[in-house]
């Protein structure tokens, strides 16, 4: 590292140490400071690392967590930004805080915001770029889905020799080429006789070549699956890595086969099988043996807000992050697997980190939640609780049964008073941060995520 880089890193590291001692923070500001002092510092900080970038609308955090836990079985030193700070300044802070061995190269597995890939690859040439999916999300910030894909493509084109590992079941990833080598993962399907259409309310089901409606031999969820165009012949690419069967889904776990091998993960949902498949594909790309992948899956911990389970006053509280219609509907699938009585908490914020356009809730399948007979109580809250109440009333919830929490401590009081042994929380990002901070203040959790 240059003298200037060493000095900048030292200054930023000092600020990080002080912030951690004084505020338990330091996940963002040190990176901002370092970049201001030296706009090119990221390249110097990362030069002794083999970098994997993981991006996409949904699943970045879980895929990164699973991949890191697998790779730790095989590599001595794996760096990751596990604080949830996935913009350039957070990634800088991650490198600044790392205690890398003095000799040899290390591995860095980075969750990167979709719009930030292009900024990161300006200075880093990754060994692999992974994209999980692209769905409509935070339209005030990203715009339509093709804008998101353009951001990712721009980042990939800055590192043209880097292989791309893409979700082959998502048509958008085959819509525009890049100079990069490509590998695809997805759900295997041998039945080519079935011909069906996606639900009428599904985004991105037009052929990117000729604009005709895409058909499917198989659909996993939303617009993902074995797609083809009857007009121009556009179709799903060949898969290098595949889910070959789903064996069991419970509210807490999933059992499935990848390329004919049995695996188990301690989180639920088809969307998490996709995340596991992406992590598996990363591991196979880096020649990690199957037994270590299996161990990495089985020993993975649940990450903040992604089916995290807490004990609050004897209640089993499951926390699920919601941020867009597709992700919300997948959480509804998981909640629907639960057979025992539960109470439901839904929190809706519209801060910049959540996306300030909350119209997405009208495409979320609240009607399915309202129809669950074991949903015995509903508590709602957040900055946009009025809109949330209206949406839930239209979905069929009973107005007399919708209890409004005035603030986050009131949410916790409602949870403690719940008459069911299980409470399912569906919450947007900043409401989740507020909830965890309040739980930390009450001594219920020891740490919280950092914005």
- The number of distinct helices, counting runs of at least 4 residues, comes to 15
Measured as a percent range, the helix fraction is 25-40%
Give the strand content. 15-25%
Distance between the termini: 29 Å
Quickly give the structural class.
Answer: alpha/beta
Net shape: globular
- The number of strands is 17
Mean pLDDT: 92
Biggest sheet, in brief? Answer: 9 strands, mixed
Q: State Rg.
A: 22 Å
Adjacency order of strands in the biggest sheet: 2-3-1-4-5-6-9-10-11
Taking pLDDT < 50 over at least 5 consecutive residues as the criterion, the unreliable ranges are none
How would you describe this structure to a colleague?
With 451 residues, this protein is an alpha/beta fold. The chain contains 15 helices and 17 strands. The protein has helices spanning 3-23, 29-37, 41-45, 60-71, 88-96, 117-120, 139-142, 145-157, 270-285, 290-298, 325-337, 366-370, 385-395, 408-417, 429-441, and strands at residues 49-55, 78-80, 106-111, 128-131, 164-167, 182-187, 215-221, 224-228, 241-249, 254-258, 261-265, 306-312, 315-321, 342-347, 375-381, 402-404, 422-427. The strands form three sheets. It has a nine-stranded mixed beta sheet with strand order 2-3-1-4-5-6-9-10-11, with helices on both faces. A six-stranded mixed beta sheet has the order 12-13-17-14-15-16, with helices on both faces. Strands 7-8 form a two-stranded antiparallel ribbon. The chain is globular.
């Amino acid at each position: 590292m240059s003298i200037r880089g060493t000095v900048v890193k030292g200054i930023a590291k000092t600020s990080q140490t002080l912030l951690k001692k004084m505020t338990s923070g330091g996940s963002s500001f040190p990176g901002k400071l370092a970049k201001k002092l030296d706009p090119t510092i990221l390249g110097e900080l990362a030069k002794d690392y083999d970098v994997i970038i993981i991006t996409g609308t949904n699943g970045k955090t879980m895929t990164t967590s699973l991949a890191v836990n697998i790779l730790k079985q095989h590599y001595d030193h794996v760096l990751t930004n596990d604080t949830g700070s996935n913009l350039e300044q957070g990634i800088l802070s991650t490198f600044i805080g790392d205690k890398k061995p003095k000799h040899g190269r290390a591995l860095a597995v980075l969750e990167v915001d979709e719009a930030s890939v292009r900024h990161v690859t300006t200075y880093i040439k990754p060994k692999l770029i992974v994209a999980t999916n692209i769905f409509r999300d935070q339209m005030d910030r990203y715009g339509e889905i093709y804008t998101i894909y353009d951001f990712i493509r721009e980042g990939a084109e800055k590192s043209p020799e880097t292989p791309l590992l893409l979700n082959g079941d998502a048509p958008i990833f085959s819509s525009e080429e890049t100079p990069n080598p490509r590998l695809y993962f997805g759900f295997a399907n041998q039945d080519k006789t079935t011909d069906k259409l996606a639900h009428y309310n599904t985004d991105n089901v037009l052929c990117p070549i000729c604009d005709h409606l895409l058909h499917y031999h198989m659909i996993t969820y939303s617009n993902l699956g074995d797609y083809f165009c009857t007009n121009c012949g556009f179709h799903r690419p060949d898969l290098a890595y595949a889910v070959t069967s789903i064996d069991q889904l419970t509210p807490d776990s999933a059992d499935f086969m990848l390329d004919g091998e049995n695996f188990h993960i301690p989180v639920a949902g088809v969307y998490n099988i996709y995340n596991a498949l992406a992590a598996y594909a990363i591991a196979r790309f880096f020649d990690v043996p199957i037994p270590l992948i299996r161990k990495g899956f089985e020993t993975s911990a649940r990450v903040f807000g992604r089916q995290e389970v807490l004990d609050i006053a004897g209640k089993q509280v499951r926390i699920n992050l919601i941020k867009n219609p597709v992700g919300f509907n997948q959480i509804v699938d998981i909640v629907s697997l639960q057979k025992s009585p539960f109470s439901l908490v839904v929190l809706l914020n519209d801060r910049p980190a959540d996306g300030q356009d909350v119209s997405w809730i009208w495409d979320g399948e609240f009607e399915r939640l309202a129809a669950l007979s074991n949903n015995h109580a509903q508590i709602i809250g957040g900055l946009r609780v009025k809109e949330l109440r209206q949406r839930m009333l239209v979905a069929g919830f009973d107005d007399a049964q919708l209890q409004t929490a005035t603030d986050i401590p009131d949410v916790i009081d409602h949870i403690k008073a719940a008459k069911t042994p299980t409470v399912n929380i569906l919450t947007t990002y900043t409401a989740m941060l507020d909830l965890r901070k309040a739980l930390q203040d009450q001594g219920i959790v020891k740490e919280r995520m950092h914005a």
